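TEACHING EXERCISE
Course module: macromolecular assemblies
Task: Read the component lines below, then compare them to the predicted structure of the full complex.
Student: A.B.
Group: 4
Components provided:
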Amino acid sequence: MELICPAGTPAAYREAVQAGADAIYCGFRDETNARNFPGLNFTRDEMKAAIAFGRSRGVDTYVALNTFMRAGAEDIWYRAADDAAAAGATALILADMALMDYVATKHPDQRLHVSVQASASNAVAVNFLVESFGAKRLVLPRVLTVAEIAALARKVSCELEVFAFGGLCVMAEGRCSLSSYVTGKSPNMQGVCSPASHVRYREDGGDMVSELGGFTINRFGKNEPAGYPTLCKGRFHIADSDAYAFEDPVSLDVMDHLDALRAAGVKALKIEGRQRGKAYVAEVVSSLRRALSASPQARPAHVAQLRKLSEGQQTTSGAYEKKWR
Amino acid sequence: MKLDRTGEDLLNQKRPMDIPRPLVFAVNTTPLPIVQKIVDAVFRRALRQHPNLFDRLGSYAEKRFGFSPTGLDLAFEIHPATPSISVYRKRQAPDTDAAVTGPLVMLLALLEGRIDGDAMFFSRSLSVTGDMEAMLALRNALDDCGFDLPKDLAGLAGPFAVPFQELANRVRSRALEGLA
Amino acid sequence: MTDEAALKITMGPVPYLWAGEKWRDFYYRVADSEDVDAVTLGEVVCSKRDHFIKPYLDEVVRRLTDAGKDVAVASLALVTLEREAIATRRLAAGQAMVEANDLSALRLLAGKPHRIGPFVNVYNGATAALLARKGATRICIGPELSAISIGSIIAGAPGVEFEVIAFGRLPLAISARCAHARAKGNTKDNCKFVCGEEPDGLDVDTLDGQSFLTVNGVQTMSRHCQVLLNDLGGLARLGVTHLRLSPQDCDMVAVARLYAEVRDGALSAQEAIAALRNLYSAAPYANGFLHGQPGMNWVAA
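Instructor-supplied answer key:
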């Protein structure tokens, strides 16, 4: 299985190459990708240089254009697709059907991957995108068990990529407006989730309180491990108790299911984390690279220390195991 | 770059990364203007070597950033747009748009992109306040621009540049291992 | 450009788990309402709830059709299991007009007239036009789009009807995991249908007591109730043809009456909003998304 690694900056890109990535995904410095965070991402020139550097080391580059085109401003996305294709991207990762249609028509030789944001969660949906736009690969949403992925893989006519490590979307990707409900900015439109512009931390009686748009997302005791102020991983009052209503602050780790995913015919494993620093990218990519070639017994040792880098310093297999539901 | 070692070591710290007592005493008693002068020279030299920092910072360069190393009676205010760095005793430190507090060694490691800021935040080793968008922009800009303090600052040591760099590298790796 | 008076009113699918008889009687009342032009119904949120309404669905559709309503059956929003895929296939192959709420339904319905529900991502005119080429005749716009975007989408797909959610809690997210069952100590697979205990959704407050979200089975909804009574004229001018009223646990026929009266100029928006508070006071009102603001905001006329 290929290891697909994140890069939020050219420095992180270089680290990922050195750490053993098979392919690296990254985005332009604007709203055309779902990690549109301040100070992150690539200018056109940086993208060109990164793609060339990757190619010189035998590493592929996927350019993520995985937000939905803003009505009336579609040209921003069309131009980004043109530029990524011209820069020599191995593949474009797309979520918007009209953008897929544009790329399939204007750049018929450009390899097209379907983003997790497109929310194709069953075989018929996957094949619809393959037939309609010539998609070569699809990134599955984090809503399926390993057994369901295996069943789906038998019925689809394209490669499958699944998330293996890092941030865990609790909600079906590409179908979440929680952030825009509170802040006016969303993953689908502006490429942000729980945007930093609306995040505040404050001390309150020894607790650290995280807020989004003035709403309390969590309250951490003095030395309690913390997480991102992500809406779906906050602690709330629900059904007469204070609890993580949707999910704990936790990261995804499916290394326990590696062999099952391989047997299921999954082509590529994706590491989440374009917003993380280059030190994180280097550590996670090299650890997973070692784990991939290690025996199942030796694997846990390679990934155990990654937990400390994770949200809330804990990990989960998420939807890959049925009991998570 | 030995990234994995250092990140792991920092996370495994049982006790806070203490700065040696004599050094704390020296820093806390050195007259502020002298500290300011040294810090100024370091700041200017480092910035000259990494002009791309500002490109990534964009309009957030207009913000005022505070850095407050725990255990030292010092606070730094950085205004990238000027660019300027001001040193204060903690009591007199002005309010900033965004601020980060944590052990000095960690702040320096973060400056160099040797550790992952998010992981330090999850472990509660760092705390951040104020404008998170500005703080994120600064973090990402620093992460990309490849600060390497021993190398960047070696020039200040003139003819002793090479031995300075070696010494500084040694101090850094010992500090990062929590042994300094 | 459409005239405000031409706006049609659609009663949307009940998002919550109601007892089968209650669900049936609700739509029987809707059938008798003069103010409702169209009805979209069916289980959209969770396939485990199917058997609650299944015994009544055909009869309800017949009664609504006989009453002259323009009826469509909505497909499931998140299709992952084999039985869900089969149910979607069966629905698409049937006689009824279908509203597609996931990509598999789009494929199964391609080439024959169908509708698009708010769970399919249509963010621009190019996507709307693409769906129209595959047979879509009416598109219900997703919750987070602003009037500016809606106008541009409509302009990009002439000949298609467009619907917006003008009343009700907004669908914000859907998950493989059931937060509703979890909150009551159950898992999704052994949920005991506890979501039926809250026919208007389960409140989620912040730790500091702020009203925040609503959980409805695997779906997360807004705490606020969308109310676009102030905006009917503007919506018509954008080219919106249908107003969707998403059922809350209140007198929805009376709600439809208020919307119809404002549309027809018989009542001012202000008066209608005041009257609405007597019909549904369980949630604060919001219209922020339409105005390009956080969805929970209320922008006064």
